[in-house]
Write the structure tokens for this entry.
Amino acid sequence: MDVDPPIHVYTQIQEEECRELLRLFDQIGVATAERVYSPGDAIYREGEYGDGLYILTSGVLKLFRPYSGSKEATLRLLKPWDIFGHLAFTGEAKQQAYAEAVTECKVVKAPKIFVERAIRQEPQVALKIMTLFELRLVQYEELIRCLLPRETEVRLANLLPLLAHKFGEGDGDGNIAIDLRLTHQDLAAMVASTRESVTKVLNEMRARNVIEVRSGRITLKDSRALEELGRP
């Protein structure tokens, strides 16, 4: 039976592939632009023309789509060495979501026209991009699995370990702190639920000593219990 590699392995591969892609761009002479964004700044908006490949090199940003007026659905939280942006090599591509900085971010952008030239010039560029797109697909599939169950408790129990693997820091005693301030509304936007439901579930998890919440930061204290809760 095939077993998927642990998430930290994907993370390491992703960073290596991104760094190598940027090295190839520099070697070929592809012009890239690095820009710093402050929290709340938009990198791009839904519906804008997809004119480049984006690589987050530091900070945290989110991809989201608005719905029902003022509500938001968070599609992904990105960390360093995630790629993003809707890039099509045939026809015009429109961005399918908003990209917004959560913390101060550094983003490298490679314009679409230069990426196309690089692929024609150096096949290794195409292989790196294909690998990175595949890793991005894996992450989307992980989030989709979180949303399949109907119950908010099950969705949160599946989501929190993913966030811990991506943004977590262990203390050596088995506890993993998610190094990111997340409001109950933030979590509700990620699991397609209401803030009230998320608050209720988090309070129940705290009462059972499954998690701890301090200053908006969540620490996972009982991974086995979360795993049990995550089974629909």
The radius of gyration is 19 Å.
